[in-house]
Design a protein that fits this description.
By secondary structure, the chain is of the alpha/beta class. Helices cover about 30% and strands about 20% of the residues. Bound molecules: S-adenosyl-L-homocysteine.
Length: about 400
């Protein structure tokens, strides 16, 4: 089991340069005015940014003389692609990004028939120390800024629009916070990111609330805070065990907020939004996949507005754990369904590029700076049912 401490307070490193995506619309207008330009230029810049335009030469609605200054001051490049890796015939693409201070994060774009999902990172590394997750074993490097998180989604939207993903030009439809990091441990920046994802053009990507999934290890107070925001985004809770005894070891934050409190918080979210939450459960052979645990989980969730998403464990380097064998998976599913709990098994994408949930996280060095190069997740996209939640 993990000997790593739980870490909430991210180490402070140099702040990334100011970026339009970190600012409110009013702040952006003020910043543009400081550069001697009329405030509406903030809207023009935002339209270019969220539209994936980064080259000042293409911003022909801005006066040529002002373009470089506006872009230099408000749209600095925060995410430098280090490499792209493809899988699934080019329909899964993982990108390793270098941040201004050398920290590394990954995002994974997955195209499915009828939708395209990007899995984004909210922190470099993670402080939650889950022993089966490669990112958790790396520790926390730092929180990402809002613009660093938003930039991953904007880049994915541009890649889809430009036809960089097999299948021709398309539209980014979904965003899941299932990459590196614990989104609710970086709450203010993630909150800002949600605004940018949901706000229509020019100041955002205009995604639907149901198409955005926040996945949490179970920070109960932060789930309650999210409930009070009035948003309706999809909530996913990484449970992995129905009982405190086992969950204390698999998800160390459980020593602080127990299963009952986490489920209570998720239930309150579901009551407020009228939307089913997703319970994530990595099936680990002989660890959490016993029939009695399926029954416990079934009793815990029966009658609740919840859906279980089982993820056969993606093995991580050095771990002694493995995925549950198929018969154990089938038995687990059958028992949950018999308890009346909607259950799906997640289809894993990107295993061959170490892009599947919790797989990456190799320490790396860029420009001599040790960094965490991770990428927990491609498969993270809740497969069938979450996508179909609109039919509830
Ligand atoms: N911190 C957030 C996001 C993490 S990644 C959270 O905990 O929800 C998204 C999902 O991948 C989580 O459900 C996480 O528990 C799961 N995961 C991590 N490592 C995994 C592994 N090795 N195999 C399968 N799923 C894993």
């Amino acid at each position: 089991m993990s000997a790593l401490p739980l870490v909430f307070d991210a180490p402070r490193r140099g702040k990334p340069p100011r970026h339009l995506a970190d600012l409110t619309r009013d702040e952006a207008r003020a910043a543009v005015a400081e550069l001697g330009q009329p405030p509406f230029r903030a809207d023009q810049l935002a339209r270019h940014y969220y539209g994936g335009v980064t080259d000042p030469a293409q911003m022909t609605d801005l006066p040529a003389a002002a373009r470089e200054a506006l872009v230099g001051e408000l749209l600095p490049g925060l995410l430098t692609p280090v490499r792209h890796q493809e899988a699934d015939g080019g329909r899964t693409r993982k990108t390793l990004w270098r941040l201004h201070d050398g920290a590394l994060v990954e995002s994974v774009l997955m195209r499915y028939p009828g939708r395209a999902t990007v899995c984004i990172s909210s922190q470099a590394g993670c402080g939650m120390a889950c022993p089966f997750c490669a990112t958790g074993q790396q520790g926390l490097t730092r929180n990402l800024s809002a613009a660093e998180i938003i930039g991953q989604a904007v880049a994915a939207a541009a890649a889809m629009a430009n036809g960089e993903v097999a299948g021709g030009p398309g539209r980014l439809s979904n965003v899941v916070f299932m990459g590196m990091g614990e989104p609710l441990a970086n709450y203010p920046r993630v909150r800002k990111t949600l605004d940018a994802l949901l706000t229509p053009a020019p100041h955002g990507l205009g995604l639907g609330q149901r198409s955005v999934t926040v996945s949490t290890v179970g920070l109960a107070p932060a789930i309650r805070r999210l409930t009070d925001e009035g948003l309706n985004v999809t909530l996913a809770v990484s449970l992995h065990a129905p009982d405190d005894e086992l969950r204390d070891t698999l998800v160390p934050i459980n020593t602080r907020w127990k299963v009952a409190e986490v489920i209570d918080a998720a239930d309150a979210y579901a009551r407020r939004t009228g939307r089913r939450y997703s319970v994530e459960y990595a099936l680990i052979r002989d660890v959490n996949d016993q029939p009695f645990r399926a029954d416990l989980l079934g009793r815990l969730l029966a009658g609740k507005l919840a859906h279980v998403n089982l993820i056969p464990l993606n093995p991580t380097p050095g771990s002694k754990w493995d995925a549950s064998p198929l018969p154990a998976q089938r038995e687990f599913v059958a028992r949950l369904r018999a308890a009346g709990v909607p259950t799906t098994v997640r289809d894993t994408r990107g295993q061959d590029i170490d892009g599947a949930c919790g797989q990456l996280a190799a320490a790396d060095q860029v420009d001599g700076v040790p960094s965490v190069a991770v990428a927990p997740t491609p498969s993270m996209e809740p497969t069938v049912e979450l996508g179909a939640e609109g039919d509830e």
